[in-house]
Amino acid sequence: MKFERVLWLFLGLSLLLSFSAVAFAQSEADMEEDAEMMEELYKRVFKIGDFRVYSMSDSIGNVYPKFQKKLAQFDEVMSIRESNKAFVDGFLKKYGGGETETYKAVRNINKKFEDIEIEGVGDHYELVVERFGWLDTSPDNNAKETLDFVKTGMEYISALNQIYKVRAIDEYRRILRLVPEFSSNERYERRMNRMLEEANELAVQLKKEEEEILSKRSWPNGVSSTSAGTPAALSSAGLNFLNGQSDWGGNTKRETKILKVTIKGDWFVAERTLIGTPLRYGLPAYVAVSDNSLPADQIIVYEVTFVTKNPKMETNFLGVWVGDVWNMYKKNLP
To answer: Sorting pLDDT into bands at 50, 70 and 90, what band is 27?
Structure first.
């Protein structure tokens, strides 16, 4: 009898250990699967990027798309949160150790997964819940930041080159109309409407000023002679050089076209050596350019200096220095 009891005890312990081993293996497998899912979720959210509105400055014409991108990013992360809420909430209950404060929960999560040699799971969780949390705070913040951005831009619009004033106010008006898409808060919509009225009035004023200025502008006369080469030959050489440059005639993104080059002045010493001998010569010119950033009836005029590679007054140009920039009506280009 004693032997039989020992045998049954041994068999019971063996079964218990076996079941425990299976349960432990299953638990570890579940943790590995959860860690993989959290890592995948982290990668998706991180790849989308920060959808909060801040530091939105860019060249005129390129700012509005950045605001549109913020809206798209917000919507994408919101969709991910809605479809993964049950998993994220369950993850915290399983591994957060009952903590509700994120930093404490993250510490517990990292510890549990480190026990099975998986690093950084809590850190992945932390970023995911941080971005999900931004979804609740960013609508009003984004609306306010958008309004503040436009307010600042309108205050400094008078300091812009004439080329950009009308384009800037048109872009600011488009950006303002995005405010209700960021937030349904009526306070920001009321502010948007007030600012739109002001922006519309400013747009009328700026367009009138531009019309008055451009109607008086004509293509400047060039020089009749230079110290080396005829103005016609030099203009042709300058135009050919610019057409071969990636940031000029070769700029396919802006569809830049070099319409005309006129020699503005005579050759001069652009750079000297330490002992004062000429190193490079410069040739001043006007360059007429059209691109897709401009209204169809306008061109940009660059006042440039073609700089030579060698200390000779020849058209072996190294590059160009850009000075003043202004716009004019395309119809006034001879």
So the answer is: confident
Instruction: Mark residue 95 as left, alpha or beta (left: phi above 0; alpha: psi -120 to 50; beta: remaining).
Output: alpha
Residues 109-131 have pLDDT tens digits of: 999 999 999 999 999 999 999 99
DSSP class per residue in 69-131 = HHHHHHHHHHHHHHHHHHHHHHHHHHHSTT--SHHHHHHHHHHHHHTTT--SHHHHHHHHHHH
**Residue 319 φ then ψ, to 5°:** 180, -165
Of 42, 138, 132, nearest in space to 81 by CA = 132
In sequence order, what are the beta bridge partners of 328?
299
Q: What whole-number distance in Å separates Cα of residue 96 and Cα of residue 105?
A: 4
What one-character DSSP code corresponds to residue 330?
G
DSSP category for residue 218: -
Report how far apart, in Å, the C-alpha atoms of 325 and of each of 9, 60, 284, 289, 328 are: 95, 15, 14, 11, 10
Q: Which of 34, 195, 192 is nearest to 125 (CA)?
A: 34
For the segment 284-307, what is each residue's pLDDT rounded down to a tens digit? 999 999 999 889 999 999 999 999
Q: How far apart are CA 81 and CA 84, in angstroms?
A: 5
DSSP at 245 = S
pLDDT of residue 58: 80
CA torsion through residues 284, 285, 289, 293, sign: positive
DSSP H/E element including 287 = strand 278-290
284 contacts 205 by C-beta, under 8 angstroms: no
- Estimate to the nearest angstrom the gap between the alpha carbon of 191 and the chain centroid: 26
Quick one: 244 exposed, middle or buried, by C-beta within 10 A (0-12, 13-18, 19+)? exposed
